[in-house]
């Protein structure tokens, strides 16, 4: 409650200041963004009309439109700033959350190309989400498609593990790498990855999840061996 009151007080102070400094670009931008965050888009729009080329403000509008599934409006903004890392990341994650991997990839590639050193911090979560999307496609595909989806999932999980060991997504990527190996039938690698995760994680919930996954993988491996023997 106190934090909410503090934010409201700050907002009202900015509005009062704007009355005295109506041409202040930075102040106009800040207030417009605050309106957007408060879902008062109709109050932010007149400010954007006065500042049509403000990249920071356009980005916030684009992200808002994506959150409201107003894709066409978001696309118009994206066309104005096609290389914006944050906006491209938002597009990629929006499509990935819907399982639309083909639509997500052009945007994710721009994020990878424009910020290869992860200065904005998006890459671990982006790789993880792409990996999860591919992994989720394995059981709904067959033959070469299933193999391709498995390889792509592994590639992105490994990218998190190898490149971003200090990220919050590191152990999650390890866990799903192990799960993905089990989905592709590589039970030995699955158990190896999950056991490694169990040994180093300090997160009890993650440790329990890995242990349960190992038990399932061993059961799957035993069933696979029985099937082979029967044949």
Summarize the structure.
With 231 residues, this protein is mainly alpha-helical.
What are the key terms here?
231 residues; mainly alpha; Serine Threonine Protein Phosphatase 5, Tetratricopeptide repeat; 12 helices; 80% helix; elongated
Structural write-up:
This protein is mainly α and 231 residues long. The protein has a domain at 1-79: Serine Threonine Protein Phosphatase 5, Tetratricopeptide repeat, CATH 1.25.40. It is built from 12 helices and no strands. The chain has helices at residues 2-20, 25-37, 41-50, 55-67, 71-80, 85-97, 101-114, 123-138, 143-163, 170-183, 187-200, 204-230. The longest helix is centred in the C-terminal third of the chain and has 27 residues, at 204-230. It starts with a helix and ends with a helix. The model has no long low-confidence stretch (mean pLDDT 94).
């Amino acid at each position: 409650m106190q934090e909410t009151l503090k934010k409201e007080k700050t907002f009202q102070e900015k509005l009062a200041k704007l009355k005295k400094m109506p041409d202040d670009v930075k102040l106009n931008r800040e207030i417009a963004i605050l309106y957007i965050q408060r879902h008062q888009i109709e109050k932010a729009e007149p400010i954007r009309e006065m500042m049509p080329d403000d990249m920071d403000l356009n980005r916030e509008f684009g992200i808002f439109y994506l959150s409201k599934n107003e894709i066409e409006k978001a696309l118009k903004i994206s066309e104005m700033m096609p290389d914006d890392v944050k906006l491209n990341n938002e597009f990629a994650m929006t499509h990935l959350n819907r399982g639309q991997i083909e639509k997500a990839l052009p945007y994710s590639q721009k994020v990878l190309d424009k910020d290869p050193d992860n200065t904005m911090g998006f890459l671990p979560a982006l790789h993880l989400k792409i990996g999860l999307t591919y992994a989720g496609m394995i059981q709904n595909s067959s033959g070469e498609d299933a193999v391709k989806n498995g390889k792509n999932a592994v590639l992105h999980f490994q990218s998190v593990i190898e490149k971003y060991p200090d990220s919050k997504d590191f152990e999650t990527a390890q866990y799903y790498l192990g799960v993905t190996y089990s989905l592709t039938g590589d039970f030995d690698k699955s158990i190896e990855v999950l056991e490694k995760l169990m040994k180093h994680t300090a997160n009890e919930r993650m440790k329990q999840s890995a242990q349960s996954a190992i038990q399932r993988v061993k059961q799957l491996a035993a069933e696979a061996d029985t099937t082979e023997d029967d044949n």
